[in-house]
Write a sequence for this structure.
């Protein structure tokens, strides 16, 4: 394959750009240098070439920035082996993306065949190389340690990671498992599996373990029951012993108490709390006696206080007069509070009044009514506000009326004259629309002529009677297909049957021939014939015995020989008889087969005759000759059907045109009818044109008329509004006139009133203040007089002969208030003393009553008791002690009864017999402790057994371990497979690489050496191969003949060796299966000029086998290429 | 009458997938068989079925533990207390259901066996037989009781029917014989993939394993409700279980870089998601340069951000070679190498050495019979790894 031209039609930044790779003359190396600075699009061109060859990759496209992905398009002209130059295009569709020069999809196989089935990746690996790949490839092949197979493989495939791959696979396998290795996955996993297995087995509740646990539990429970019973017995005996001891001790105590009670008084037992009750009553009697004495002293004391505070007879009169004075007020406040300041305030107010009168006079002068009383001019505040509002209203209404009048005038000027009123064109429009729908006959005329042409064409090959055939009805397609199929099948069957019959006839003839031959064979005689010859011999013998003639002797001899011969043949003819039998069988089989074949053939002939008759009928129905072949039926039927359809189409088209003409005539009449009333006449010119013009102008006329009418409405509204404003103005003026009619002002015009308003407001304020001040002065004068009258009355009530009557009202009032206060204090003391005296008397009475009750209760407490000679406190103490002793005795008796009743009677009796016994309790305590210990031990054992049994069921089922076990096994299963795959991969790879070395060394080593020396001379003069135990290794030969293993070469030399290997690999591929373009992307940018020249010479070597394409952005490399490679083509990247 | 039919619970048998190496998933699913059975009981109670039918293999031979039996009894008692009786038979893994050795299961729990092959519940006769042997070569069907006239008849049988791939033959029975026995409904067990057969008015139901345990049981994860009324029984299959297995084929050849590979993997995993259920995905990858190990690593990275989807296994293989394509020298020569007897001997020796080092439970993974497949995988793995190195 060769690339002649690359078309960047819509790709990356390119549009309709191309890069040409002109063909070189024979003998000139095919090398093209593509030069362009950085970002010129070299990578773009490279990717475009790859996508042309292998199709666009899926997903977001890196070069779809100028054009959408769906619009990307690349093309090329390629020289393909066996096809020559071929222009191709590739779009970004998923399928059928490879196109020819006319954008028609073509088969991908054209390209994939020329690419020898390489994928995009393998093409890139093998046929492209850049500086990075060259450098890293050199470093990576060092890992091959000179292995010839790996190096040649790297050269062929471009894959340099073989050593790393094999190492990685081996490491993967070793990580999983290595013989005698520790810490690998298999060892770790197996160890863990064993642990899990142990834990699971230990935790698993098997049937046997369940049985054992249940047995242990039941046995422990039985043992516990036994020792528990013993413990209960020990408890009972100890309790019986304790009860016996109680009985013995309480009996002793009862005897002592009975003796002590003899010294105490008789009588019933005191009720509970009797001692406390007696003590309380004694205390109460003493306290009530003291309380009566204290009450009598208090009564005497209160009587003295009452006597010291008598009643004041004048107080009531003084109080009434003072209350009257307190009711007097001035300015809403009590007069008494301002009594001393009222007289001074009166003088000050009078001066203020004078000042206000002077200011009022000034305002009246400003209003030009100096002599008018202020009361006639001063208005109420509300009236004044109404007046101001009326003035403002008059002003506003006047301005509005003026503005409205001006608006009306302006609108009339703007409105102008009225246009002509438009006419109603609805009917005309409808008629015109109707006419338009039928005016154009072109389409129908075309349809008719096309239908006629089609009919003529379809019926060209048909007989003249085709219409009759169609009208009589055509056979159905299914019928014809069925007949066709049957005819073809029958013909094939018949041919097959004829052939079969011939074959069977030949087979039968052959079988019969064989049978005749076998029957004719003398040793094919069967036992029947031997029997027959024997019978014949015997019969002839009998005849000969009877006759004994020569003739019979001869006959006998002949029969004897015949029989002997037959028998001899029979004896030796087993195989011949078998063959005969086989021949007979074969003949029968062949005969049967021949019969079957003949029957089948005859049946088919009959069927064929019947079908032939049916075909004849169908042929006539289709207008064909009677003997026409069924294969012609379908085409004729289709032609007739097409003719029928074409005839129907033509008839329909003709009818449609006729109907359209009738509609057109009617529509024209209607249009004339609608146009005439509007002044449109066909005589004046083309009517449709006139109508069209009228309809076109209708809209603008209607708009102008509507606009003028809207203007008239607007003017009418403005007129109305102007009239309203004028009316409002008159109304406001009338209102103002009414408000000012009573005012004694010299001028009542709007302007005069508007100017007088501030003065009227001042006058209203001054007049109001003057009126308020006058009223206050009058009130002050009245208050001072009332105060003097009150003081005089108080002097008369007091009327103290020892005091001189006072003329100052304030002092008189104060004196009266002191007298009243003293009287009130005396009243209070007297009332309090009276109250306390009454209260104390009541207390005294109650104390006497309670004293009597306490004495009675105390007597009740001792009712029926002895010890009357004792004081109440001592008496009750004695009785209480008596009752305590009685209670102790009863308690002791109850205790011993209870102790006896709570234990086993027999055990009690036994233990009581032992009393007194000082060691018995300790003895029983020890026995109980022993029993308790035994019982505790058995209980623990039983609980433990029960716990073990219960926990065995309740224990977690260790699904976690089972799950881990299963997961681990799956991991190991997968790991084992991967490890085996890795090991086999390494094993197979190493063998394959040895084979590769053996297979390719002769073909590639010379190329490698030549390229390597070209690149590295004079430092290296060749390469050689060493055979070692682990395989063949490549070494370099230095000028002095010494050899250097590859892994000891410098990094630069390694890179050059890698380049040499790739060139050799290219040549190998180019020889077989064939050359493909090799793309070299600036691989020489780090080379010095000497090495770059050498590399360029090697590129020229590629060009002699195939095509080399070098991308570079270095101008000096371009010049070097021109110097080094004869006839090299240099192409600049397109703009 | 409405029944909940299930079988093949395999209580205690764990899920077998590398996906459970994920700690959260492993923790969630360690009780999967028990949790699923408890869910079945919940379902029977909430749906108020008239009976719960267990057609064998409630336990698993590999994990015999009386705790599982105690768990079973507790769960069935829960159903019984809620008014749902249980009818069951033993399967080939149910030694723990031996009533002679371990006693009865409790009230309203009917274990059918030769001594008591029939129980009547709600006017419907349930017939079933339990056999003791783990392997039964003959059909059970002739020993089943005749249908009770005038009643609906339901049969329980643990059988491999005419044979099923991946399942041992157990009480084989011709399907047509089964359907002709005269019962209205057959509740079957043993085959872990669910199916239903309706022949006229006779229905046979294989409910499938409720909780699939490995990729091979990926069609399971269901129970079946059956309604018996006039006419043919009606059935409804209902999904159940906590983990499903899914198979996903992925072609990575069109991916130009690793980011696109990650996106493709993400799309594949998201499409495998099932609401409310964990899914273990087995990935079949076609690629020129992405080996099993590399894809496994990338998939693990992607799955970190996808809920409830986990990796069961990756199988990566190169695409089939086009006819006439130029074969890579290495691949061609490796195939030549495989054909060498000496190579095969060496490979067998390595295989045996590795096989013998494995725990006995998984030795079958490296049987000699699988050598050819392993060798093919080896060639593919070398090629993929080599090309993967070239693209890095």
């Amino acid at each position: 394959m060769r690339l002649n031209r690359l078309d960047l039609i819509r790709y990356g930044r390119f549009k309709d750009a191309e890069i040409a790779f002109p063909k070189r003359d024979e003998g000139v190396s095919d090398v093209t240098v593509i030069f362009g600075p950085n970002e010129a699009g070299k990578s773009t061109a490279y990717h475009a070439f790859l996508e042309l060859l292998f199709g666009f990759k899926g997903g977001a496209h890196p070069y779809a920035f100028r054009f959408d992905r769906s619009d990307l398009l690349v093309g090329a002209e390629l020289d393909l082996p066996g096809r020559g130059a071929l222009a191709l295009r590739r779009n970004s569709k998923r399928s059928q993306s490879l196109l020819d020069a006319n954008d028609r999809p073509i088969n991908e196989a054209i390209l994939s065949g020329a690419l020898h089935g390489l994928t995009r990746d393998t093409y890139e690996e093998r046929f492209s190389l850049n500086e990075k790949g060259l450098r890293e490839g050199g470093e990576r092949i060092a890992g091959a340690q000179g292995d010839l197979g790996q190096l040649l493989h790297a050269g062929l495939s471009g894959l340099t990671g073989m050593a790393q791959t094999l190492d990685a696979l081996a490491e993967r396998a070793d990580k999983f498992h290595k013989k005698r290795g520790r810490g690998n996955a298999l060892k770790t996993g197996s160890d863990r599996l064993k642990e899990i297995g142990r834990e699971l087995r230990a935790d698993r509740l098997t049937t046997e373990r369940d049985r054992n646990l249940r047995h242990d539990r039941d046995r422990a429970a039985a043992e516990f029951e036994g020792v528990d019973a013993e413990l209960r017995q020990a408890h009972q005996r100890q309790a019986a012993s304790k009860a016996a001891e109680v009985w013995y001790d309480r009996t002793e105590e009862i005897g002592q108490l009975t003796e002590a009670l003899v010294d105490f008084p008789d009588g019933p037992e005191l009720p509970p709390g009797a001692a406390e009750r007696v003590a309380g009553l004694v205390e109460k009697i003493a306290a009530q006696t003291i309380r009566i004495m204290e009450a009598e002293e208090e009564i005497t004391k209160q009587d003295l206080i009452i006597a010291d505070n008598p009643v004041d007879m004048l107080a009531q009169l003084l109080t009434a007069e003072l209350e009257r004075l307190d009711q007097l007020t001035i300015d809403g406040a009590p007069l008494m509070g301002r009594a001393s300041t009222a007289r001074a305030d009166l003088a000050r107010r009078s001066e203020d009044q004078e000042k206000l009168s002077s200011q009022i006079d000034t305002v009246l002068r400003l209003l030009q009514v100096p002599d008018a009383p202020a009361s006639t001019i001063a208005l109420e505040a509300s009236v004044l506000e109404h007046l101001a509002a009326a003035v403002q209203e008059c002003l506003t209404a006047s301005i509005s009326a003026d503005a409205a009048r001006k608006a009306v005038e302006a609108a009339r000027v703007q409105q102008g004259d009225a246009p002509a009123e438009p006419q109603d064109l609805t009917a005309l429009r409808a008629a015109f629309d109707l006419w338009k729908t039928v005016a154009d006959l072109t389409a129908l005329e075309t349809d008719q002529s096309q239908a006629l042409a089609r009919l003529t064409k379809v019926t060209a090959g048909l007989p003249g009677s085709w219409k009759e055939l169609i009208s009589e009805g055509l056979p159905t397609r299914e019928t014809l297909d069925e007949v066709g199929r049957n005819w073809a099948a029958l013909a094939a069957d018949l041919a097959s049957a004829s052939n079969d019959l011939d074959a069977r006839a030949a087979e039968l003839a052959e079988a019969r021939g064989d049978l005749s031959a076998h029957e004719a064979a003398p040793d094919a005689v069967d036992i029947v014939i031997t029997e027959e010859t024997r019978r014949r011999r015997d019969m002839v013998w009998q005849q000969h015995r009877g006759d004994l003639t020569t003739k019979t002797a001869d006959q006998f001899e002949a029969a004897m020989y015949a029989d002997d011969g037959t028998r001899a043949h029979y004896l030796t003819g087993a195989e011949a008889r078998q063959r005969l039998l086989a021949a007979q069988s074969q003949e029968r089989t062949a005969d049967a087969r021949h019969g079957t074949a003949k029957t089948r053939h005859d049946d088919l002939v009959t069927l064929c005759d019947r079908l032939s008759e049916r075909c004849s009928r169908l042929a006539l129905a289709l207008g064909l000759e009677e003997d026409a072949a069924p294969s012609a039926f379908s085409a004729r039927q289709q032609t007739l059907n097409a003719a029928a359809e074409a005839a129907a189409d033509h008839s329909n088209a003709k009818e449609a045109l006729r109907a359209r003409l009738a509609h057109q005539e009617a529509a024209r009449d209607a249009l004339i009818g609608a146009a005439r009333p509007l002044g449109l006449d066909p005589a004046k010119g083309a009517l449709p044109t006139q109508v069209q013009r009228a309809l076109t102008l209708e809209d603008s006329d209607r708009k102008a008329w509507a606009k003028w009418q809207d203007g008239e409405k607007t003017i009418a509204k403005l007129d109305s509004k102007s009239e309203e404003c004028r009316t409002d103005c008159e109304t406001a003026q009338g209102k103002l006139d009414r408000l000012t009619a009573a005012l004694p002002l010299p001028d009542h015009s709007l302007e005069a009133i508007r100017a007088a308003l501030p003065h009227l407001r001042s006058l209203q304020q001054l007049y109001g203040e003057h009126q308020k001040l006058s009223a206050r002065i009058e009130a002050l004068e009245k208050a001072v007089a009332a105060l003097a009258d009150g003081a005089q009355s108080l002097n008369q009530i007091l009327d103290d002969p020892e005091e001189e009557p006072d003329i100052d009202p304030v002092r008189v009032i104060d004196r009266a208030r002191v007298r009243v206060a003293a009287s009130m204090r005396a009243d209070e003391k007297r009332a309090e003393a009276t109250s306390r005296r009454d209260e104390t008397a009541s207390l005294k009475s109650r104390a006497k009553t309670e004293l009597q009750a306490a004495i009675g209760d105390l007597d009740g407490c001792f009712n029926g008791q002895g010890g009357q000679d004792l004081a109440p406190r001592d008496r009750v103490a004695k009785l209480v002690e008596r009752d305590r002793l009685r209670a102790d005795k009863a308690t002791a008796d109850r205790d011993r009864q209870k102790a006896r009743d709570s234990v086993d009677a027999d055990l009690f009796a036994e233990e009581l017999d032992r009393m007194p016994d000082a060691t018995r309790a300790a003895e029983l305590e020890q026995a109980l402790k022993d029993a308790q210990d035994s019982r505790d031990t058995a209980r623990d054992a039983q609980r433990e057994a029960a716990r073990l049994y219960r926990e065995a069921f309740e224990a977690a089922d260790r699904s976690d371990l089972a799950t881990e076990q299963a997961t681990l096994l799956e991991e190991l299963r997968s790991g084992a497979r991967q490890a085996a795959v890795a090991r086999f991969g390494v094993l197979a790879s190493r063998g394959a690489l040895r084979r590769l070395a053996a297979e390719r060394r002769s073909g590639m080593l010379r190329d490698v050496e030549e390229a390597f020396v070209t690149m590295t001379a004079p430092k290296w003069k060749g390469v050689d191969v060493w055979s070692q135990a682990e395989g063949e290794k490549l070494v370099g030969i230095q000028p002095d003949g010494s050899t250097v293993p590859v892994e000891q070469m410098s990094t630069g030399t390694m890179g050059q060796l890698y380049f040499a290997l790739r060139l050799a690999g290219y040549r190998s591929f180019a020889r077989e299966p064939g050359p493909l373009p090799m793309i070299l992307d600036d691989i020489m940018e780090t080379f010095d000029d000497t090495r770059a020249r050498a590399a360029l010479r090697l590129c020229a070597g590629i060009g002699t086998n195939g095509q080399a394409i070098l991308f570079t952005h270095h101008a000096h490399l371009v010049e070097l290429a021109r110097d080094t490679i004869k006839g090299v083509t240099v192409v600049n990247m397109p703009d | 009458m409405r029944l909940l039919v299930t079988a093949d619970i395999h209580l205690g048998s764990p899920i077998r997938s590398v996906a459970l190496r994920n700690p959260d998933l492993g923790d969630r699913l360690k009780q999967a068989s028990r949790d699923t059975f408890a869910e079945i009981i919940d379902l029977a109670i909430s749906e108020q079925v008239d009976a719960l039918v267990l057609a064998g293999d409630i336990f698993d031979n590999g994990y015999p533990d009386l705790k599982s039996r105690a768990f079973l009894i507790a769960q069935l008692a829960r159903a019984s207390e809620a008014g749902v009786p249980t009818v069951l038979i033993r399967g080939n893994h149910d030694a723990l259901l031996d009533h002679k050795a371990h006693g009865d299961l409790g009230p309203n729990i009917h274990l059918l066996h030769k001594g008591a092959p029939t129980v009547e519940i709600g006017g419907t006769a349930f017939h079933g037989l339990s056999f003791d042997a783990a392997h039964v070569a003959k059909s059970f069907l002739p020993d089943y009781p005749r249908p009770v006239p005038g009643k609906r008849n339901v049969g329980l049988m643990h059988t491999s029917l005419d044979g099923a791939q991946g399942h041992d033959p157990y009480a084989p029975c011709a399907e047509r014989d089964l359907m002709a026995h005269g019962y209205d409904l057959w509740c079957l067990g043993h085959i872990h993939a669910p199916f239903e057969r309706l022949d006229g008015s006779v229905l046979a139901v294989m409910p499938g394993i409720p909780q699939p345990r490995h990729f091979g049981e990926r069609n399971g994860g269901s129970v079946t409700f059956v309604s018996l009324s006039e006419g043919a029984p009606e059935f409804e299959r209902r999904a159940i279980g906590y983990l499903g297995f899914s198979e996903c084929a992925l072609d990575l050849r069109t991916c130009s870089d690793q980011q696109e590979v990650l996106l493709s993997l993400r799309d594949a995993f998201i499409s495998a998601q099932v609401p409310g259920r964990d899914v273990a995905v087995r990935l079949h990858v076609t690629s020129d340069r992405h080996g099993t190990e590399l894809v496994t690593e990338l998939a693990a990275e992607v799955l970190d951000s996808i809920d409830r989807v986990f990796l069961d296994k990756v199988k990566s293989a190169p695409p089939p070679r086009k006819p006439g394509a130029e074969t890579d020298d290495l691949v061609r020569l490796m195939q030549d190498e495989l054909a060498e007897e000496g190579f095969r001997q060496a490979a067998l020796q390595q295989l045996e050495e590795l096989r013998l080092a494995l725990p006995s439970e998984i030795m079958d993974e490296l049987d000699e019979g699988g050598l050819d497949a392993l060798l093919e995988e080896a060639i593919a793995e070398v090629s993929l790894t080599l090309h993967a190195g070239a693209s890095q």
Notes: The mean pLDDT of chain B is 90.
